[in-house]
Amino acid sequence: AVALTWGAELCADPRAPDCDAVLPAIARHPGFLARRQAVRTMAAQPARGQEAVLIEVAGDNVRSSAELAEDALRRLTGQPLHGAEAWRQWCAEVDCRSWEPK
């Protein structure tokens, strides 16, 4: 998990290769340090396609990870929602895999 945590941190470097494919996988890792760092990296510049994993992490029992995920979702979507259930409902209503920002 230490290597994944470090890797997720390195992905935040502007000179890093594209990490879009690996960050969601790290964000689902059972180790909370790796998970939190992946979400921290994604939250620095939230991007389309991260909604589903951010919604998953919004329900994380590690509060710091959940808060990072929700902050990223609010900035990405413009929605003022709070709590994983509200985000899951939003995702179901707009089909978060294909929504378009207004």
Gyration radius, rounded: 13 Å
What is the rounded distance between the termini?
Answer: 38 Å
The helical percent reads 55-70%
In terms of structural class, how would the helical and strand content be classed?
mainly alpha
What's the β-strand tally? 0
Shape: globular
- SSE ordering: HHHHHH
Q: What percent strand? A: under 5%
Q: Average pLDDT value?
A: 93
Please give the count of helices.
Answer: 6
Spans where pLDDT lies below 50 across 5 or more residues = none
Largest sheet: none
Briefly say what this structure is.
This protein is mainly alpha-helical and 102 residues long.
Give the SSE layout.
Blueprint: H1 2-10, H2 23-27, H3 32-44, H4 51-58, H5 63-77, H6 84-94
Helix pairs in contact: 1-3, 3-5, 4-5, 4-6
Task: Provide an overview of this structure.
The chain has 102 residues and is mostly helical. 60% of the residues lie in helices and 0% in strands. The chain contains 6 helices and no strands. α4 packs antiparallel against α6. It is globular and about 35 Å long. The protein starts with a helix and ends in an 8-residue tail after the last helix. The mean pLDDT is 93.
